[in-house]
Amino acid sequence: MTPDALLAAPAVRLFALVSALLVLKMMLLGLYTTSLRLRRKVFATPEDYAFQRAAPPAGPDEDVERARRAHQNDLENILPFLAIGFFYALTGPSMFAARIYFWGFLTARVLHTFVYVRSMQPHRTIAFTIGYTLMFAMLVTLLVRLA
């Protein structure tokens, strides 16, 4: 199957779009973390402090750490989604279900980042749970279709 033929499948095309948006979201969060680090002179490594001719702070910067943890959470959740979603899209699912899983997961992850960076509980847990539940349901559906 050629790439053009693969992308002609509606669920695969939707998955590709949502995946690209999720990667863009992760990249923007990385830029946000970097900008916080630069503005507050809170760097990741000793050589960064030496390069900037700056002294390490006495303790961690909570905003930088929060952004870093949000990015780590993305890596722990979006990467599995990319694999699960890809194989799910290849099964030729109904577009109604694919839209719920893909757009729902994207929305949950965007909201999760927003509320994580702003220290908003229980909203962070709710957004995480919705995204995780959608991904888990998609995985179960995929496993049933493959069995």
Order of helices and strands: HHHHHH
Name the assembly state: single chain
CATH superfamily: Membrane associated eicosanoid/glutathione metabolism-like domain
Helix/sheet category: mainly alpha
Radius of gyration: 19 Å
Helical content band: over 70%
Number of helical segments?
A: 6
Poorly predicted runs are: none
Mean pLDDT: 94
At CATH level 3, the topology is Four Helix Bundle (Hemerythrin (Met), subunit A)
Report strand %.
Answer: under 5%
Main pleated-sheet profile:
none
Distance between the termini: 23 Å
| CATH architecture descriptor text | Up-down Bundle
Number of domains: 1
Number of strands: 0
Q: Quick one: CATH class?
A: Mainly Alpha
Shape: elongated
What's a concise summary of this model?
By secondary structure, the protein is mainly α. It has helices spanning 3-8, 10-40, 46-52, 62-90, 95-117, 123-146.
